Amino acid sequence: MVSISILVFWIIISVNNFRIVKSGFNITFDGVFLISSILLYAPFFIYVLIVTHLYFIQLLNKQEKTFLTQQSLESQLNYQQLKNQISPHFLFNNINVLTSLIEENPKKAVLFSENLSHIYRYFLEQEKQDVVLVKNEIEFAKSYLELLKDRFESGLNFIISVDEKSKEKYIVSTILQQVLENVVKHNEISSNTIVSVKISSEENYLVIKNNKNLKQNTTSESKKGIENIKQRIAFFTDKKVIIEDTATHYIIKLPTLETV
Questions:
Q1: What is the DSSP letter of 214?
Q2: Which residues contact 27 (CB under 8 A, 6 or more apart)?
Q3: Burial class of residue 157 (count of CB atoms within 10 Å of its CB; 0-12, 13-18, 19+)
């Protein structure tokens, strides 16, 4: 708008400075004076236009940088808040398991607590990173499943079948543990109600599939856990988490990343 106003102002000055020569009903303009006026004023107004444009470009760039910085800080804060929800849940759920084991089988409780301490140490190391190699996440998931199998014995089975190419990709850290935690938290697991978990790869996804022996009143809590998973992944990729929830099975597909 400022540039247009300056340009209009320049034109008005130029027009007002035309030398008009009247001869009867004919009006002519002094072309020489018009050209000299343009040559005189043009450099000044061009300079003003350039300076004005540069000022506003600089102002817009500054505002954009400020906005992007604020947006980045806000995103980092939101992501950290999501991550902070994971560790307490991990401890709370496994302490509940340990408490029940102490009552049922004190010797097994001791073994469980020892294995849990090793896994939790690795869990804290993984949690410091935003993304990790799929092969590292798979190893962590395997250790966690073996820990759970110590608790549930024949009630829990698992198979891991991930191709080598997928293992060299990346995935959001501790995301598999969250999925497995939901499986255990929301299903009845015993020798009479066996839960089988399969982790496999499919194109650009890790696929976790389990049969359903649902506990009562777990729907709202399950949605919170899944929402956390979706939001954490959304910080790193536009690919969506895919969920297939049937009467007998629950399948969740987690997108993997080519690079970090």
A1: B
A2: 20, 21
A3: middle
Burial class (CB in 10 A: 0-12, 13-18, 19+), 222: middle
- Tell me 205's DSSP state: E
> Token pair of 185, please?
């938290």
- pTM, two decimals, is 0.65
Residues 6+ apart with CB under 8 A from 110: none
Q: Answer whether 256's CB lies under 8 Å from 166's CB.
A: yes
| Nearest partner of 174 among 204, 130, 237, 221, judged by Cα | 130
From the number of C-beta atoms within 10 Å of its C-beta (0-12, 13-18, 19+), residue 223 rates as exposed
pLDDT tens track for 115-172: 888 888 877 777 678 889 999 999 989 988 988 888 888 999 999 999 999 999 999 9
| Tokens representing residue 209 in the block | 């599939």
Q: What is the DSSP letter of 247?
A: S
